[in-house]
């Protein structure tokens, strides 16, 4: 079996690593990001890929910057490097080491959605399909030749978590099908058309705020496209309130976008820019824990909510 070095960091990369192990490849080294402080108590936490690697007794390397520190990889002389959501760009010197090159498992149908947040943007932009691309790595981000692709429908109730899980499994399976063809020289890589490229950069804080002027479907896509991280928010009584979950609602209205037009048993019904509405079913007021819409309503005078406006 061929010698492979695997590079990945978050949960998305775990099924890919697990599948490589299951398929019997010799994993010489697992490269992942350093442990980071997490949570309110800032507990130093290993990335999911490190946890998986250690479970299988694989050696782990955690460079702060791979571009300055890849002598160990050079010494191992792997046949192939596989990356999946590693989180760092590989320098040319590293790309040139393996006999079969460096390939990446990317969570979009390239050249669409190059960048670090393709799953988020596929929902935010209202795409009906997304998928996985196995590609050769190049010095430019996500611009290498395409080796194989697999499509996946985006359902109207998908959020980042559900799509993330499905795509991780699709990616693991597609890679498993692709590697035997790669090692037997039975692939025909396709160059990407840069003119068709779109981008999915990491989400900025200001992009997380809900714009109630937008149509119902766009607002709904915004909320599910940021769930469960980094989470959409709106202004409520001058403070940021996170909106964890919402549903499209049947009520229509002439009220201004952002106005709470009604109260349901399980949430707030809010006007959108196309005279339709969204029902917020899970939220988190500033300084409080996440709660269901019904729990929020228990601590609030309902009549005072109707007519109030979110977003200011």
UniProtKB/TrEMBL annotation:
Pfam families: Formyl_trans_C (PF02911), Formyl_trans_N (PF00551). The keyword Protein biosynthesis applies. Transmembrane segments: none annotated. It comes from the Bacteria. One of its GO terms (molecular function) is methionyl-tRNA formyltransferase activity. The keyword Protein biosynthesis applies. (6S)-5,6,7,8-tetrahydrofolate binds at residues 108-111. Keywords: Protein biosynthesis, Transferase. Residues 202-299 form the Formyl transferase C-terminal domain. Residues 3-178 form the Formyl transferase N-terminal domain. Its EC number is 2.1.2.9. GO terms for cellular component: cytosol. It catalyses: L-methionyl-tRNA(fMet) + (6R)-10-formyltetrahydrofolate = N-formyl-L-methionyl-tRNA(fMet) + (6S)-5,6,7,8-tetrahydrofolate + H(+). InterPro entries: Fmt, Formyl_trans_C, Formyl_transf_N, Formyl_transf_N_sf, Formyl_transferase-like_C_sf, GART_AS, Met-tRNA-FMT_C, Met-tRNA-FMT_N. Belongs to the Fmt family. This is Methionyl-tRNA formyltransferase. It comes from Gracilibacillus oryzae. The lineage of its organism: Bacteria, Bacillati, Bacillota, Bacilli, Bacillales. The gene is fmt.
